[in-house]
Specification:
Layout: H1 7-22, E1 31-39, E2 50-53, E3 59-61, E4 67-72, E5 78-82, E6 89-92, E7 101-103, E8 113-116, E9 119-122, E10 130-134, H2 135-138, H3 146-150, E11 157-161, E12 170-174, E13 187-190, E14 193-196, E15 215-221, H4 224-227, E16 238-243, E17 249-264, H5 273-284, H6 301-305, E18 309-321, E19 325-337, E20 344-357, E21 362-376, H7 395-401, H8 432-436, E22 439-458, E23 461-480, E24 496-519, E25 523-546, E26 563-586, E27 590-601, E28 610-621, E29 634-648, E30 660-663, E31 668-670, E32 673-675, E33 678-682, E34 691-704, E35 709-728, E36 737-760, E37 763-780, E38 788-790, E39 795-798, E40 805-808, E41 811-814, E42 832-834, E43 849-852, E44 858-868, E45 871-881, E46 884-887, H9 888-893, E47 935-937, E48 940-951, E49 960-974, E50 995-996, E51 1003-1013
Parallel strand pairs: 1-7, 13-16, 46-50
Antiparallel strand pairs: 1-4, 2-3, 2-5, 5-6, 8-9, 10-15, 11-12, 13-14, 15-16, 17-18, 17-51, 18-19, 19-20, 20-21, 21-22, 22-23, 23-24, 24-25, 25-26, 26-27, 27-28, 28-29, 29-34, 30-33, 31-32, 34-35, 35-36, 36-37, 37-44, 38-39, 39-40, 40-43, 41-42, 44-45, 45-48, 46-47, 48-49, 49-51
Length: about 1000
């Protein structure tokens, strides 16, 4: 199969539909109608209102003042006027040349529709916890993937930008972390196609291959009632993504573009050359630098590594159709250069959505998203522990630690390895420009395709069959050149390259049967039944090579290398599902939903191939009760409750329930020949099964003052059991560990979201805000055997406590002259002192205590939109409160052990004449104790975006022209001393949270944009 449709196929589809759009005979008699569409309550013009000729493909939209012009072919035609949030009206033309219309607000939005699993519902019918995000909000900031656009806009959803790198990944947590060793990322559904996001630090998010501008709406399903329809994959929540589809009426062509510049929002002060030279003299106790003061500032390595980088986006969209056929076509180009040299992300994408009504009973259609993306990466972030040389293996760590006394380039302009300078004093320190020269590029071709057919079997009964394909091919190219290696260190292994090819194919078929009926006028009944079968195929191969003669061909001629190794892999898995849902309603007052799904997976043990996931929910629209009918200030009041069971199968790879073997490499020697051995690697577990979450939810939807103010409150409690946990086995078993369902944890929380239309006259002002409080707790690890264990030297898992707590020593200043230095750790005069908490006169693990919690007390988001005549102004803010960060980078760059530059504050380090209580004295090979000195408050408030726009006056032949200027990540209010408080080096980890080990920092950007609709 090809991952991108052939040009002939695409051209044929486009041509067919365009012929349909333009192949209309023109009536000889026409009439031009002008008018204005206004709000009946305020008499203000309604921008973007639809004016369509009923039964034809003619139509237009109103401008910023609500005015429109439309030419119709029949003076007896009927016009339909509609706008979101208003009641539609039909008006006969009757040979009139001007028609003004006032639309009445649909105060209770009775017919507003939201997308749910395998269908849609009116908003008033929803019994679960579902949040919707508008397409305009998603792209308010220049985001690469949809998850970034959701950040801080939905209560109950915490999104952390793991890396500020172009195309960088994000970690998404819906109602907390729900697993320990499995994944806690939600399930994404794009036009029926299921996508998973790993959340890894340096992974390219699969969501980055989807153009956010193509998205019509996003629904976040949070409670068990809303998610149980997806069964074994829904414990972490579900994100439904619907792309824009064609609309009948006048064909519109729009062009959107923006261009801007980015720069790093912060740099970290470090020692200059004179200060560094003095530090080196003290650490090595010599006089290597005879006159440190004469060296001045030296080289600013951060200035060489960071740059001002461009970002641009261009999109062309065609939308329109007849009553029978509708089309939406878009072409997109996105390019974001990174603020670190030699990094960037580039994407080309095509979307084609077609819907065609064959007859009154049959409808067919397709959705095709094709993309090709190129990511150029640089080494950043590391999950290694300690304070050694690993910190400078990332380009940012190398820039901070590079001696400012050395030079970046030789006189001839070539890269100057540090080992060839200063007499080889710094052979083990990397030139950060050399790390930037390492090639690490991945190209990803991806096609998401959906083909559906829908038939009305008889009144109320509909059958829909869909066939979905997710095809992804990627090729990663890496090469570490010989030119960055010190001349004295060149050997037969110098110069290394690789090619990694990965292919994935997901096939999904769904048969959906829907029956809807109204009984005795007041009782509504809807039944949904689904059979689904999904297969996942993946294969890959890798070629590694070392020892190149030169850098001329890089990794494009791996056969030139002295040593080459190859490996390959292939996996297959299958999931079969049966599900049903019953929706019942009475007088739009009482609602009851029952959902059940059975999933069978090839990944699970023989004793647990199938799981059953039921849920029940109900809602009471109190506003419909007679005793509230005359309460004018109350617009809507609904009480919701739900309880259900969902599963998490995402944390288990294929074949983990089986006894497995693996290659041990060339470990065995027979007759002086090394042979590859195969040994047992995994013990069988026929009881391996999915993680299960039971969740209860109580919600309240409240609207006041003719919907001017709306509030949604949810309270939930979720317990996850049978968590995947790697349990240690006795060595006598022949295995070190076994993966099984041993652990459990819980999440409890409160969500609050509010929207207000403060001003609705000539000056319009809307605000929205949300806040979430979530508390998690580990209930069990391995059946009661383990109560606490360290997962890093400072992060723990402890029964009865939140995930990822920091447990360290307590910093107590500097060991001063004449003080007693307690035994038990590498204490010294001028070194860090920690408290003897148990008072036994020695420092041991018993003196470690919980000193920080990376889980925020609450997260929040706030947005505001102002509009006056043709001007619009919007702002968006987000933040967290009460979370701690372990600043691993600060730990490394405050440790004065020689050969590496340090943070600027260490210039005030301890000495007999400067007995300060913060910074340790220089000492070769010195190691500081892991203490709460490096645990910092990570709370912050960030201005994510401010945008000012202006819609130009009417231009003949153009419906709308808008220009705007936007600033992103303008400022961050925080006490955190690192690059950015929104950090998580361990990315998708559920246990190591809130650790800063120098990931790619975020950029501040300023851009200008243009939007034109013809």
């Amino acid at each position: 199969m090809q991952s991108i449709l052939s040009l002939r196929t695409v051209a044929g589809l486009i041509g067919l539909v365009l012929v349909t759009l333009v192949g209309q005979a023109q009536a000889p008699r026409t009439i031009t109608i002008t008018g204005r569409v206004t709000d009946a309550g305020t008499n203000d013009g309604l921008p973007g209102a639809n004016v369509v000729v009923k039964g034809a493909q003619q139509g237009t939209t109103t401008n910023a003042d609500g005015q429109y012009t439309l030419t119709v072919n029949d003076a007896t035609a009927t016009l339909t006027f509609s706008s979101i949030g208003y009641l539609s009206q039909e008006v006969p033309v009757a040979s009139r040349s001007r028609i003004d219309i006032a639309l009445k607000a649909d105060d209770r939005s009775l017919n507003e529709v939201v997308v749910v699993g395998y269908g849609t519902q009116r908003k008033i019918e929803t019994t679960g916890s579902i949040a919707s995000i508008k397409s305009t909000d998603l792209v308010q900031t220049p985001v690469v993937n949809v998850a970034q656009g959701i950040q801080a806009r939905v209560a109950g959803v915490q999104i952390v930008q793991n890396s500020g790198a172009p195309g960088g990944n994000v970690s998404v947590r819906i109602r907390g972390t729900n697993s320990i060793n499995g994944t806690s990322e939600p399930l994404y559904i794009v036009d029926g196609i299921q996508i998973s996001n790993g959340g890894g630090l340096t992974e390219i998010s699969p969501l980055s291959t989807i153009n956010p501008n193509d998205i019509e709406s996003v629904e976040v399903l949070k409670d068990a009632s809303a998610t149980a329809i997806y069964g074994s994959r829904a414990a972490n929540g579900v994100v439904l993504i619907t792309t824009k589809r064609g609309k009948s009426g006048r064909t519109s062509v729009s062009y959107e573009s923006y261009y801007g510049v980015q720069k790093v929002s912060k740099t970290i002060p470090v020692l200059n050359a004179a200060q560094f030279a003095q530090l080196e003299n003290e650490a090595f106790k010599n006089n290597y630098y005879a006159n440190p003061a004469s060296l001045g500032e030296g080289v600013n390595w951060q200035r060489l590594v960071f740059r001002q980088a461009p970002i641009q986006n261009h999109q062309l969209t065609v939308n329109g159709g007849s009553e029978k056929t509708q089309l939406a076509l878009s072409l997109n180009y996105f390019n974001q250069e990174g603020v670190i040299i030699n990094s960037g992300f580039e994407r080309y994408s095509l979307r084609l959505n077609v819907d065609h009504r064959v007859s009154d009973r049959i409808k067919i259609g397709t959705s095709i998203l094709g993309s090709y993306s190129i990511n150029k990466g640089v080494p950043y972030g590391t999950t290694s522990l300690g304070d050694g040389d690993f910190i400078t293996s990332s380009i940012i760590g190398a820039a901070l630690g590079a001696p400012p006394t050395l030079q970046p380039y030789r006189p001839d302009g070539t890269l100057f390895p540090f080992g060839e300078q200063a007499g080889g004093q710094y052979r083990e320190v990397a030139n950060p420009l050399g790390l930037a020269a390492i090639k690490n590029q991945i190209g990803i071709q991806r096609t998401l395709a959906n083909l559906y057919g829908e038939v009305n079997l008889f009144k109320g009964l509909t059958y829909r069959a869909s066939f979905n394909v997710d095809l992804q091919n990627s090729l990663r190219n890496t090469y570490s050149p010989r030119s960055i290696v010190n001349a004295a260190d060149l050997n037969d292994n110098s110069g290394s390259g690789a090619k990694v090819n990965a292919n994935a194919l997901v096939l999904l078929h769904e048969s959906i049967l829907t029956y809807t009926r109204t009984l005795a006028q007041h009782h509504t009944l809807k039944f949904t039944g689904v059979f689904a079968t999904q297969s996942n195929l993946a294969n890959g191969n890798t070629i590694n090579a070392t020892g190149f003669p030169n850098d001329a061909t890089e990794n494009e001629a791996l056969q030139l290398a002295l040593t080459r190794t190859v490996s390959s892999s292939r996996t297959k898995e299958r999931l079969d599902s049966y599900l049903g849902r019953i929706n019942y309603g009475y007088k739009d007052r009482y609602f009851l939903d029952l959902t059940a799904r059975a999933d069978g997976s090839s990944k699970f043990g023989a004793n647990h191939k199938y799981g059953f996931f039921p849920a029940v929910s109900a809602a009471w629209r109190i506003i419909e009760e007679p005793f509230l009918k005359n309460v004018g200030w109350l617009s809507d009041l609904k009480l919701r409750a739900s309880y259900g069971l969902t599963g998490n199968a995402g944390g288990i790879s294929p074949y983990q329930s089986l006894a497995t073997v693996s290659s041990s490499g060339s470990d065995y020697q027979f007759n002086h020949t090394y042979l590859t051995g195969i040994n047992p690697s995994g013990i069988a577990n026929p009881d391996l099964r999915w993680e299960k979450s039971t969740q209860a939810n109580l919600g309240l939807d409240l609207s006041l003052l003719n919907n001017r103010l709306s509030v949604v409150v949810d309270v939930y409690s979720k317990k996850t059991r049978d968590l995947l946990y790697i349990k240690t086995l006795p060595l006598s078993s022949g295995y070190g560990s076994i993966t099984g369902n041993f652990a459990s944890l819980e999440n409890k929380g409160v969500e609050l979201a509010a929207n207000a239309r403060i001003l609705q006259g000539a000056l319009r002002w809307d605000v929205s805000a949300n806040a979430t409080i979530n508390r998690n707790k580990v209930l069990d690890l391995d059946g009661g055997t383990t109560k606490e264990r360290f997962v890093t030297t400072y992060s723990i898992l402890s029964v009865g406590q939140p995930l990822g707590l920091f447990k360290t020593y307590v910093f107590d200043g500097i060991n001063q002259t004449g003080e007693t230095i307690l035994p038990g750790y590498d204490g010294r005069l001028g070194g860090h002192k920690v408290k003897d908490l148990n008072g036994d006169g020695t420092i041991s693990a018993a003196d470690q205590t919980v000193t920080g919690n990376p889980n925020p007390k609450f997260i929040f988001g706030f947005s505001t939109n102002l509009a006056y005549k043709k001007f619009d102004l919007s702002g968006f803010f987000s933040g967290t409160q009460g979370n701690d960060i372990f600043n691993q980078a600060r730990f490394a760059f405050e440790t004065p052990l020689g050969q590496r530059n340090l943070y600027a504050g260490t210039a005030n380090r301890w000495s007999p004449t400067n007995p300060n209580q913060e910074y340790a004295s220089a000492a070769l090979g010195n190691r500081l104790p892991v203490s709460n000195r490096f645990v910092e408050d990570g709370s912050y408030l960030r201005c994510k975006n401010i945008t000012l726009g202006y819609t130009l006056p009417n231009v003949k032949g153009i419906q709308r022209i808008r220009v705007y200027a936007s600033g992103n990540n303008l400022f961050t209010l925080t006490n955190y001393t690192g690059f950015d408080p929104e950090v998580n080096t361990y990315a998708g980890s559920n246990t190591v949270i809130g650790v800063d080990n120098l990931v790619y920092p975020p950029a501040r950007s300023f851009l200008g944009g243009l939007q034109v609709t013809f």
